[in-house]
Amino acid sequence: MGKRCPRCNSRFDYPIDTAIQTNQVGTPTRTAHKDWATHCNIPLSEEQLDYITRNYNDLLCPHCMQSIAAEEHPVSVRELSNFLLDLSRTLMGAGAHTSRVVRNVTRIAESFGYKVDMTIFQMHITMTIRHAKDDTVRRTSVGKIGAAAFNFNTISQISTLSWEAHDDHLSFRELLERYKQIIHEPRLSRWWVLGLVTAANACFCRLFGGDVYAMGIVAVATLIGFFIRQEMSARHINHMAIFLVCSFIASLIAATGFWFHLSSTPETALGTSVLFLIPGVPLINSIFDLLEGHVLVGISRAVNALILIVCIALGLSATMLILGLDML
Ligand SMILES: [Zn+2]
C-alpha cells in the first residue's frame, strides 16, 4: 500500500495489511505510530512518539522517523511559538517588565534550539521564532495582552521554570505541564487581600505621622474603598471609573475625622486614605522599561499610570469641594 508522508510529502511503501489504528478524528493513534516505527526498526523515545502523535495526522516515512529519532527533544515551531506567545502574554499581564519577558522567552526558545525576536507594545506582542540552524523553519505570531491581575508569584515561578528549561533541558511536554500548574495555581483569597491592604494603608497613615484614631479612620476607609474596587473589577467596569469612584468614597469616609473631630491629625487620614489606589507596579515598570531601552512601552505605561493618578486626584478633590475643606 502506498502512502504519502505528511512531513516531507514523499511517497513510501506501507507493507502491513492490517488497518491502521485510528482515534475519533481519524488520525493514527500513538500505538499505531509506535508499531510502525518498530516495524521499520527505528527506536523512538516516548517523547519522540508524543511529538509525532501531537503533530502529524498520518504515519511518517521511515526517513522522517529517522531524523526525528536523531533529535533528543523534538518540538515543532508551531507548538513552541504558540506556547511562548501564551507565556509572554501571561508574564505581561502578571506585571513583569518588558526585558524580563524577553529574557525568559529567549532562554526557553534557546533550550530547544530556536531564536526569538520580539516586539512588545502596551496591548500586543509580535514574535518571530526561527530555528537556529535552519532559517526556513520560522513562524511569526501576534497576540493580544489581556487585562489580568498582577501576580508576582506567577512571574517568579515562570522565571524559575525558564532557568530549569535552560539548565535541565526539560522536554516540551514537561515544560507545558509545569506551566499549566503555575497558571492554575489558586490565587490568594480576596478577603485576605482586603485585610492585608487595609492593614498596610493604616500603617502608611502612621508612617506619615497620623495618630491612632486617624489609623482607625483610614482602616475603615480602605476596607470599604478596596471592597468596592474588588466588586467593580469583578464586573469589568472601566478602571478609570473604578479609581475615580473608590478615591471619592475612601476620602469621603476619611473626612469624618474633620466632621466629628475624631482625630488630631485628620489631614493625614484624608491624604493617606487613597494610597491603596496608587498604581505602583505600572510606575515602577515604566521606569525599568525606559532604562532598558523599551521606550515606547515605558512611555505608554507611565501615561496609563498618570491617568489613574489624575482619577485619584479628581475623586479626592470632589470630596474636598463637597465638604468645603481648604487644606492647600
Ligand atoms: Zn517523510
Structure description:
There is one protein chain. The chain is mainly alpha-helical. The chain is 60% helix and 9% strand. The protein contains 14 helices and five strands. The strands form two sheets. The chain has a three-stranded antiparallel sheet, covered by helices on one side. Strands 1-2 form a two-stranded antiparallel ribbon. It is elongated. The mean pLDDT is 90. Zinc ion is lined by residues 5, 7-8, 10, 60-61, 63-64.
Structural class: mainly alpha
Average pLDDT metric: 90
What's the total number of strands?
Answer: 5
Low-confidence stretches: none
Task: Tell me, briefly, the overall form.
Answer: elongated
Instruction: Give the end-to-end Cα distance, rounded to a whole number of Å.
Output: 90 Å
Q: Roughly what percent helix?
A: 55-70%
Rg, alpha carbons: 28 Å
Order of helices and strands: EEHHHHHEEEHHHHHHHHH
Distinct ligands, ions and cofactors found in the model: zinc ion
In short:
The protein is mainly alpha-helical. The chain contains 14 helices and 5 strands.
Q: How are the elements arranged and paired?
A:
Blueprint: E1 2-4, E2 11-13, H1 30-39, H2 46-55, H3 62-69, H4 77-94, H5 98-111, E3 114-120, E4 124-131, E5 138-144, H6 152-168, H7 172-183, H8 190-207, H9 212-234, H10 239-254, H11 256-259, H12 266-272, H13 280-291, H14 295-323
Antiparallel strand pairs: 1-2, 3-4, 4-5
Helix pairs in contact: 4-5, 4-6, 4-7, 5-6, 6-7, 8-9, 8-12, 9-10, 9-12, 10-12, 10-14, 13-14
Bound molecules: zinc ion (ZN).
Zinc ion (ZN) binds at residues 5, 7-8, 10, 60-61, 63-64.
